Amino acid sequence: MARFHALPVAAVDRLTDDSVTLTFTVPPALRAEFRHTPGQHLALRRTVDGREIRRTYSICSPAPADETEGPETLRVGVRLVDGGAFSTYALKEIAAGDEIEVMTPAGRFTLDPAPGLYAAVVGGSGITPVLSIVATLLSREPRARFCLVRSDRTSASTMFLEEVADLKDRFPERFQLVTVLSREEQQAGLPSGRLDETRLTGLLPALLPVDQVAGWFLCGPFGLVQQAERSLRGLGVPRSRIHEEIFHVDASPTTTDTTTTTDTTAAATTAASTAMTATMAATVTARLDGRGGTWSVREGEALLDAVLRNRSDAPYACKGGVCGTCRAFLVSGEVRMNRNFALEPEETEAGYVLACQSHPVTTEVELDFDR
Question: Which pLDDT score, from 0 to 100, does residue 276 have?
Fold first, then answer.
């Protein structure tokens, strides 16, 4: 069960003009709880004027070499977002010695080190979880190789420039790095410009045998991840080999509402069921940390909010359908998810939903956060 703990800030290091890394010290008594798989993230929490603010940031430090040991420190990358309540605080106010409430690691954009060829297409701060993945993989598994294609605006805005260069120096035969700058010409390498579906479709087969890649990791803005997935699918890559994590989504992206039931062959949402959710009385039964309860769902309310009114310990971070922290198993009933940028197709087919985006279609819904 995910829990928050107050961790001291060991260091705040500037990466670029608009990004920093925060390094947290993990006390010995908490190290087992903060064991993580490369690619996972942390939710950070603060309260401002009585309002709780949570944001998720990916762990950029490698996992400990001994998988049974928890980390002594954890490091996350934070990029400033215009008007961002937490990122502004992180860049302008947080200092070494402060204590921050940090949730134990979560997320499924991960790779357990294993032999084989792996690749990633990342944009901007999307490098953060992939840095942990690459560093851990190449250090632990001598029969693994990795190709990283990264897109940034300019060299000055590129996060973890030195860390990635260090990996290239340490593993020159097993780490392939390709950098594309969208707003700056490079003296050598690829021409500047955005990485879109057409460009990636021509570039990727020239870099590596696409069909031999055991896992593709796409991370960054919604547009880049979407374009990269289309390119890979067009090149014949099975969806099961593509792993995605979205870092930035427009306020109203073009998406299709989907209905999930305990029968995973259910059809798409009908206009009738959508209208029904706006007016019907419904209840949600939720199991959380071994304890359950049944509560009413207010008109137009997401299931997560109904649970939070009664169980403040329900897990969540972004409430935007992006981080996946609120993932729960749909035991019974039917729900409509407004957005889903966190769950893989096999997860939704298995019956998992995002509680923050789920609205009841039936009068009774049961969720299990422990599964």
Answer: 47
CB-facing half-sphere around the CA of 150: CA atoms within 13 A: 25
> What residue type is 145 in one-letter code?
R
Predicted local confidence at residue 182, as pLDDT: 86
What pLDDT is recorded for position 184? 79
Measure the CA–CA gap between 268 and 78, rounded to whole angstroms.
37
**CA nearest neighbour of 131 among 117, 150, 156:** 150
Strand order in the sheet with 358-360: 258-261, 334-337, 358-360
pLDDT, tens digit (0-9, with 9 covering 90-100), for 75-98: 999 999 988 999 999 999 999 999
For 15, 76, 125, 210, the CA distances from 102, given in Å and listed in that order, are 21, 11, 20, 38
Residue 209, classed as helix, strand or coil, is coil
Query: Which is it for the CA torsion 323, 123, 258, 241, positive or negative?
Result: negative
Ranking 154-163, 179-188, 259-268 by mean pLDDT, the lowest is: 259-268
What strands, in cross-sheet order, belong to the sheet with 19-25? 51-58, 41-48, 99-103, 4-16, 19-25, 73-79
Helix (H) or strand (E) holding 55: strand 51-58
Secondary structure class of 299 (helix, strand, coil): coil
- Asked whether the beta carbons of 123 and 152 are under 8 A apart, the reply is yes
Average pLDDT over residues 168-184: 94
What pLDDT, on the 0 to 100 scale, is given for residue 262? 53
| Whether the model pTM is above 0.90 | no
CA dist 144 and 5 (Å) reads 35
Q: What is the 3-state secondary structure (H, E, C) of 93-151?
A: CCCCCCEEEEECCECCCCCCCCCEEEEEEEEHHHHHHHHHHHHHHHHHCCCEEEEEEEE
